[in-house]
Sequence to fold (210 residues):
Amino acid sequence: MQSEPIRLSVILLAAGQSRRMGAQNKLLRPFAGTTVLEAALQAVLQAQKLLPEKGVDLSEIIVVVGHQSDKVESRLQTYPVRCVQNPDYTTGMGSSLACGVQASRRHSRGLMIFPGDLPAVRPDSIVRTAAAFAAGKPGRIVRPVYGERAGHPVIFDPLYRDELIRLRGDAGGKSVVAAHPSHLHEIPVNDPGVVQDFDTPEDFQRSSST
Fold:
């Protein structure tokens, strides 16, 4: 008899103000024929198709919106996601992460935190990270690493749900990881996309020149 899949909730963070981009919302900037946010989401959706054979279900995808939420939600109308509004998005990423986790289904076996400004992540990196999480012990935190740099997505056991919900300000998931170093498992990947976020115009210029 086939066992039930490990059901994970994806929390895609898309509420930030893109302060270092000036007047532009970096998530809506063009990238690889689409937008930054959609490229990140499409990587998740491609991984979603590959993960059932690994015993993993990514059927819940929550997008946390805030800054220019109408424009962001308009771009996502055709995608199988649920948008959740963070009314406190101006206070920092911690509140958006907490908002997404709070909105996720209680019976999820893991919480995958995915910043919306990582459009170059390869689907196979998401698959490897999720499969490693599913095969691990209870209480685990799993993240990919490229070289010596920690990347995303980071997957938390629901044991840390309440800690994540209490996050505020600019305190992101790193503070929860730092509080439980013995439960952290890092998965080496040959994918610079897991660490390549886009915060400034220079980041986009570097990407277009490579």
Observations:
- The chain has a mean pLDDT of 91.
